[in-house]
Amino acid sequence: xxxxxxxxxxxxxxxxxxxxxxxxxxxxxxxxxxxxxxxxxxxxxxxxxxxxxxxxxxxxxxxxxxxxxxxxxxxxxxxxxxxxxxxxxxxxxxxxxxxxxxxxxxxxxxxxxxxxxxxxxxxx
Length: 124
Prior knowledge:
Blueprint: H1 3-9, E1 14-22, E2 25-29, H2 42-45, H3 48-55, E3 63-66, E4 71-76, H4 84-87, H5 89-100, E5 105-107, E6 115-120
Antiparallel strand pairs: 1-2, 1-3, 4-6, 5-6
């Protein structure tokens, strides 16, 4: 299951955006159609119609923003030059089990072997 399907299935708010990776960090930007600058409070400020309008611009963006109030994200940052299956078998097997169990994830935009797993909170 891809992350957008997961978000839609669990009624998690999302919208597309762009992220430029530099030495200083990650710089988010919105397509010009949003008429706005990135704001960490967008999910609190925008109504459902505005979020749906933003979703129409998925083809103009390289990432998505998720409302993380109801999900946990497990960020796996495997380094490129380490054989985790051999050096850290418990960690490797844990990640492989998450994949086998069908936990939705996406590959990292910045790390070749990195993955971001998404788990729905039961608190809401």
